[in-house]
Amino acid sequence: MASVASPVIFKEFCPLYYLLNAIPTKVQKGFRSIVVYLTALDTNGDYIAVGSSIGMLYLYCRHLNQMKKYNFEGKCESITFVKLLSCFDDLVAVGTASGRVAVFQLVSSLPGRNKQLRRFDVAGIHKSCITALAWSPNGMKLFSGDDKGKIVYSALDLDQGICNSSLVLEEPSSIVQLDYNQKVLLVSTLQRTLLFYTEEKSVKQVGTQPRK
């Protein structure tokens, strides 16, 4: 006897006012009032990360119903990409319009986890807008891509507080998406998609025709 399919239930999802109300619509800079635009978003089971046009990262903890704020020192510039990772520690990578990349290692109340907020900076290899970020599952590798086609690999040692970065690939067009798994980095640009094998440092193109 064939089983009867369960009925499909439609749900209506409303705006997250509890989240939006915790983010200011304007900030005061001297005598000027500056409108705050939301420019980047990522979510997982623990957090909702929202980047803004004023260089402020708003991080909402879903378990504690709390909003925290993180920012870059110095010049206020738009955040263009955020990427969360939940592994042994909770991490969030942030990229900006000028090519700055930072990693925040978040504080956890769980035993044996990180008890002090730490920040790691990817030192000045990118010079233009960050368009993609990708983590390895264990949080030891971060790949960042920009709109000039540069891809940077950053090796993080969270115990020692060290971040070493190097340029691993340079494409002739903007990077639009990165994904990493099992020593293979999937790269999509405005012109093509490729697989970059990080151990052999070799490239294999997906498909033969360039994108129009």
From TrEMBL:
Q: By which gene is this protein encoded? A: Tecpr2
Under Pfam families, the record lists: WD40
Protein name (database record) = TCPR2 protein
> GO CC: one term?
cytoplasm
The UniProt entry, under InterPro entries, shows: WD40/YVTN_repeat-like_dom_sf, WD40_repeat_dom_sf, WD40_rpt
What processes does the entry annotate via GO biological process terms?
protein exit from endoplasmic reticulum
